[in-house]
Specification:
single chain; 371 residues; mainly alpha; Serine Threonine Protein Phosphatase 5, Tetratricopeptide repeat; 4 domains; 19 helices; 3% strand; globular
């Protein structure tokens, strides 16, 4: 039942708080309750649109934003929300036209809104367009760390590492506790081979600052190599604990897939043993001959590790070496690594099979195929 005596603004505030807490279903219920009393509230329709967008209900989100724009055709938040929704439908030109209309309406100094638009474009790989809006934000709010950091992210994705480093350092000058900017800077330095500089940045973060495993893995690897720490050094324990938290516990489906994969591997090993017994004499004759290079591959990771074998065996070995992927399937390992690689390099890595995954990773600069 509707709560008596609440204004539309109060409904909007309640829903906004729930939205910020990630409680999208509850926010939507509050907004519906408010609209039952105030059907012409632009803010409530916009709120429904963003709640729907957060729930990936794009058609419903578009309808809510369009209703808001019928009531107020120049409402900047409704225009931005509609633009984000159009991006989800692949209507990039229409979305960009909506975003630029916001600038024409004079909202270039609404930094939060401009950053919101830039992030939406960035997520859809519209790097040049995202940079346009991040540059506006950085210009309009040159003392805002988040604006400088976003400019750093987009410069990196656009291939301008020097510009990215400058922007990220500027962000850290403005806000020394901007963990996301510091981790991003550390990863760029690592990829450029500045391992001491990378570790210097990573050491100024806490485990809970990290929401991706890559930075933690690199910190652990660098501490082991530069400080000669043992695998079981207590200094590494909090970071390994955070890796486990981010990996999460395998669910029933993960465990089932892992069990199936184990059985398949055991059957494959049994078949291989049978083949060895059947063709023992032939193998003996060939013992002194060099194995064809086409049967064995060699890859070199950026951290110096080397893996040798068939494509499938290399990927399995990479998975087994990753403590955070214990109990996970090879397919899940490739999907996780491909997602992480894309977030760092912007290069999509295929995961249809082991060879495509390795070659895609090499193309992204994450490893090198030696043979």
């Amino acid at each position: 039942m509707p709560t008596p005596f609440l204004s539309s603004e109060e409904y909007d505030e309640r829903a906004h708080q729930l939205y910020n807490e990630g409680q999208y279903d509850e926010a939507l219920e509050v907004l519906r309750e408010g609209l039952a009393l105030y059907p012409n509230s632009v803010e409530l329709h916009i709120g429904v649109g963003y709640a729907r967008l957060a729930r990936d209900e794009y058609a419903w989100a578009r309808q809510s934003f369009e209703k808001a724009l019928v009531l107020d055709p120049d409402h900047e938040d409704a225009i931005a929300g509609l633009g984000e929704t159009l991006l989800k439908f692949g209507a990039r030109d229409q979305a960009l036209a909506r975003f630029r209309h916001i600038l024409e309406l004079g909202y270039a100094d609404d930094i939060d809104l401009v950053l919101q638009i830039g992030r939406a474009l960035f997520r859809e790989d519209m790097i040049g367009e995202a940079r346009e809006f991040f540059e506006i934000a950085a210009r309009e709010a040159n003392e805002m760390a988040e604006a400088a950091a976003c400019l750093g992210y987009v410069r990196h994705r656009g291939g301008d590492d020097d510009g990215a480093i400058n922007a990220l350092k500027r962000a850290l000058q403005l806000d020394d506790e901007h963990a996301e900017a510091r981790i991003y800077l550390a990863n760029i330095l690592y990829d450029r081979g500045d391992y001491e500089g990378s570790l210097s940045q990573l050491e100024r973060t806490e485990p809970d600052d990290h929401w991706e495993e890559l930075g933690i893995w690199r910190l652990i690897e660098l501490k082991k190599s530069l400080y000669r720490l043992a695998d079981d050094d207590p200094e590494l324990a909090p970071w390994e604990d955070r890796l486990s938290e981010l990996a999460g516990e395998p669910d029933d489906i993960d465990e089932m897939l892992s069990e199936i994969e184990t059985r398949v591997n055991e059957e494959e090993a049994a078949r291989e043993r049978g083949q060895l017994e059947l063709f023992g004499a032939m193998l003996s004759d060939l013992a002194g001959q060099k194995v064809s290079d086409t049967l064995e591959h060699r890859i070199l990771l950026n951290d110096g590790r080397i893996y040798v074998g068939s494509w499938d065996r290399i990927v399995r070995a990479m998975r087994d070496a990753n403590k955070a992927m214990t109990g996970r399937s090879v397919q899940e390992f490739m999907a996780t690594e491909a997602s992480r690689g894309y977030s760092i390099t912007g290069v999509k890595i295929p995961i249809g099979d082991a060879e495509s995954f390795i070659r895609g990773s090499a193309n992204a600069g994450l490893l090198r195929i030696v043979r």
